[in-house]
Amino acid sequence: MFQSVSKDKATLLQSGKNKNSCAVCGMNLVKFYKTNHAAHLNDTARQYCSLHCLAEDKNLKKMPLSDLKVVDVKSLKFIDAKNAFYVIGSKKKPTMSEVSKYAFASKEDAVKFSKRNRGKVLNFDEALKIAMKDFDTPEKRMAKEVSATDIIYFSDKNPVAKRGKSGHGGHMHGGSRGQIPSKKVWPVFTNSAGELNCISNIRSELFVLNANLEVTKAKQSRGGGCKTVSFKMPDNGYYNLFYIDGNVQDDTLYMTSAKYEYMRFNHSNDAVYDDKKMSAHSIKEAPFDILRLREKGETFYHRLYAGEKMRVKVILNSKPIEGANITLSTKTGWSKTVKTDKDGIATFVLLKDYFPEWNKFDRRHKNDFLLTATYTENSAGEYLYDPYKKIKYTTTYTSVYYPNESAYKSYAYALLAAIVTMLFSGVAIYWYRKKNQQPFREVRFDEKN
After folding, report:
1. Which of 208, 268, 206, 259 is nearest to 236 (CA)?
2. CB atoms closer than 10 angstroms to residue 17
3. What is the C-alpha end-to-end distance of the chain, expressed in Å?
4. Which of 23, 136, 279, 408 reaches 20 to 30 Å from 37, CA-CA?
5. 86 contacts 124 by C-beta, under 8 angstroms
6. pLDDT score of 307
7. Pick from 423, 443, 420: which is nearest to 431 by CA?
8. Splitting the chain (449 residues) into consecutive groups of 10 residues, what average pLDDT does each group show?
């Protein structure tokens, strides 16, 4: 990658355990060294992976930054950013932005670079204005680069969709009757502040395991803002989308993956439920994975319901792993963590946490849940020439479950009981009043007697 250099050529101005990470987004500074910036905040050095992150601190957060510096692409030394010559919009890959920004100490070097790689030569203030365009819309403000420690998962809802507008990926049938349906999802993550972010540029590998157990590579969407991934579903059966990435930070190899499983069924009479194909599968490219185990008797009409048990298996390098931590969390905020047994299996009971008013009860209500599995292995080695002393595996699996039919019946029984009680009470009151009603009698008083 053009932005990267070896560790011995990089200058790290920060101190502390996070000195290798961007002060804003947490990305590896050495990996994106040629776009590094730096500044001082109250005599403390802050180093950034990009002008984008510096702009966020300086202009959005209004931090009183001083002594702004940038890496000279030619010498790899930090220089005064306000005296640098920036090449904006070259064909070299950008960092944290749609538009690349590389700085040079001399105008001559900047012009040579722009002639070879295209782009315009601008000063710092002009480059900063262009960097601020990354924050023009809510979608762009939400779109971030992923750091090594971020936990990624897939969502079928647009994280920046406006209320009242559809934010679902769903099928995209188009106008043609014979068009193959497809599914669109958003890879997202929650940062350390608890804020939901989408991904501005997916640098990981993306794979699709189709209904016939064939593996193909997937691509991210074009354009700016939140990236999406789409895949076609020509046949009935389960489709699995995988996100797989690896990064070394602080002597730890972070192997991050995410999985999205979706079943397509066109309700045709000739559809055959093949137990082998429909069972849970992984791919060799995914080192760490979660499998939702199928239960006996599952069909194309299968759904997960509240109150039922769900069994999952965690595998490491295609083998069941004991002692992995796996957490089930729902959108209502409930979560539970267990460890996998000797067969790599963990069992959860899907929480009943949907209690609307009777007239608002929706049997089709979807409760999203997220499974997150983690496992740490004390194993040393090298990954893309970066040495590490241990490996931290993280993987996610997202799906939905529905209100149990018994809950709907309970609501119906409760309503029926209320109606019967009201009728009985009405009849009882009427009978009581009828029984105790005194007949009318006229009484005359003779005052003489």
Report:
1. 268
2. 7
3. 124
4. 136
5. yes
6. 85
7. 423
8. 93 92 90 97 95 94 96 98 97 92 98 96 97 79 80 90 49 56 93 80 93 95 85 95 93 96 88 92 97 93 89 97 96 92 96 68 78 96 90 96 68 66 76 67 61
Identity of the residue numbered 210: N
Task: Give 33-59 as a DSSP string.
Answer: GGG-EEEEETTEEEEESSHHHHHIIII
Question: Which neighbouring-strand residues pair with 80?
Answer: 69
Q: Where are the chain's structural domains?
A: 7-136, 139-405
Q: Are 13 and 47 within 8 A, CB to CB?
A: yes
| Residue 311 in tokens | 């069994």
Phi, psi of 418, deg, nearest 5: -65, -40
β partners of residue 311: 347
Query: How many CB atoms neighbour CB 307 within 10 A?
Result: 14
pLDDT at residue 165, rounded to an integer: 45
What are the backbone angles phi and psi of residue 220, rounded to the nearest 5°? -80, 160
Alpha helices in 245-331 (DSSP H): 275-278
Distances (CA, A) of 148 to 29, 54, 257, 386: 11, 19, 11, 13
Determine whether 362 is exposed, middle or buried from the number of CB atoms within 10 Å of its CB (0-12, 13-18, 19+): exposed
Distance (Å, whole) CA 59 – CA 61: 6
Write the secondary structure of 172-227 as one string of H (helix), E (strand) and C (coil): CCCCCCCCCCEEEEEEEEECCCCCEEEECCCCCEEEEECCCCCEEECCECCCCCCC
Separation between Cα atoms, residue 415 and residue 313, nearest integer Å:
41
